[in-house]
Amino acid sequence: MQRRKTNHFDERVDKDGIITDLASGISKYFIKSYGEIDPEVIAVENGITYSYGDYGDSCDGMLEFLDGEFHIFINTRGKTISNRARFTFAHELGHFYIHEHANALINGSAPAHSSFTGFKSEQIIERQADHFAANLLMPEELVIKAYRRKRKFEFETIVTISKEFQVSLTAALYRVFMLDLHPMMIVKSKNGKIIGNPARSNDFYYKLNDKRNLPEDSLAMDFFSKGLKSKNSRELWAMDWFDTDGSGKVFEHCIYYENQDMVISVIWRS
Q1: Using the 8-state DSSP alphabet, how is residue 259 labeled?
Q2: How far apart are CA 255 and CA 145, in angstroms?
Q3: Residue, of 9 and 250, whose pLDDT is higher
Q4: What is residue 185's DSSP assignment?
Q5: CA 13 from centre of chain
Q6: What stretch of H or E contains 235?
Q7: Listed residue (61, 228, 187) closest to 133, CA to CA
Q8: CA dihedral sign of residues 69, 75, 80, 86
Q9: What pLDDT score does 124 carry?
Q10: At residue 9, does pLDDT exceed 70?
Q11: Longest Cα–Cα distance in the chain
């Protein structure tokens, strides 16, 4: 079967599609066997113990190998078990299933580490585990089916997929991006500055005006300069964000991480 065209904001994440195929196969097995994808059930079937607790902002989760057994810690941050915790659980399962990650824990070449999930980390092993979790919890064919129920792309599409697959908004956004379902760019900013390399879909041809500074009229800058958070998308001239002389417009929507002073902006063509 020919592999569907997808986006990769870092080719090192899954260059040969091995992680995608691994997670997809596990997902299909558990849907067929149990009718759903439940990270707790997957853990039990693999002899992995797990626990939920409030670990503050120290991590989202952790996979530990001790006395010959694996254990997963999930940080609830004092809340009930959330979609974010569900994604974190799947992320830690990724560390277990990806052989290089698990073997590093078993042979002691890498100690147990605190994970920050949901596509926020720049570390390659964290991105790989996020990629695994996205494919596990959001099977390609089901996401495409949910996406096509909407007549046009808007951020509400991401909200719908987030609810249907019980994942965070950020996880749903990156899954839609990776499947190349609509031309878009995802930009991370922290302390008022753009960080890392923007994730740009295959058919999104604009390039940023400034790789470091946010546009003054952007929703992201409103957060950093005025402390404002918008629940709505904003329509802007494309030239505000991008190197273009055209008169086209784009939409921006933001996901806010106040405790990290970070914003994820998704920008798409109108």
Answers
A1: G
A2: 24
A3: 250
A4: E
A5: 13
A6: strand 234-237
A7: 61
A8: negative
A9: 86
A10: no
A11: 63
Angle at 29 between CA 26 and CA 31, to 5 degrees: 105
Would you tell me how many other CB atoms lie within 10 Å of the CB of residue 53? 10
Q: What would the two tokens of residue 44 be?
A: 């039990």
**Full-model pTM:** 0.86
pLDDT at 139 > cutoff 90: yes
d(CA 58, CA 197): 25
**18-137, which class in CATH?**
mainly alpha
How far is residue 92's CA from residue 49's CA, in Å, rounded to a whole number? 12
Instruction: Report how far apart the first and last C-alpha atoms of the chain are (Å, whole number).
Output: 34
Instruction: Please give the residue that has the higher pLDDT: either 185 or 80.
Output: 185
Q: In sequence order, what are the residues at sequence separation of 6 or more whose Cβ sits closer than 8 angstroms to the Cβ of residue 229?
A: 223, 254, 256
Question: In the chain, what are the helix, strand and coil shares in percent, each to the nearest 5?
Answer: 40, 20, 40
pLDDT at 2 over 50: no
The amino acid present at 189, given as its one-letter code, is S
Please say whether the beta carbons of 266 and 156 come within 8 A.
no
C-alpha distances in Å from residue 198, one per residue of 91, 143, 186, 210, 260: 22, 23, 6, 11, 18
For the ranges 11-25, 131-145, 153-167, 204-218, the lowest mean pLDDT is seen at 11-25
By CB neighbour count within 10 A (0-12 exposed, 13-18 middle, 19+ buried), where does 209 fall? middle
57 — phi, psi (to 5°)? -105, 20
| Mean pLDDT taken over the chain | 90
pLDDT above 50: residue 268:
yes
Q: Where are the beta strands (DSSP E) in the chain?
A: 49-53, 61-66, 69-75, 184-190, 193-200, 234-237, 249-257, 262-269
Q: Using one digit for the tens of pLDDT, what is the confidence trace for 10-44?
A: 566 786 789 999 999 999 999 999 999 999 999 99
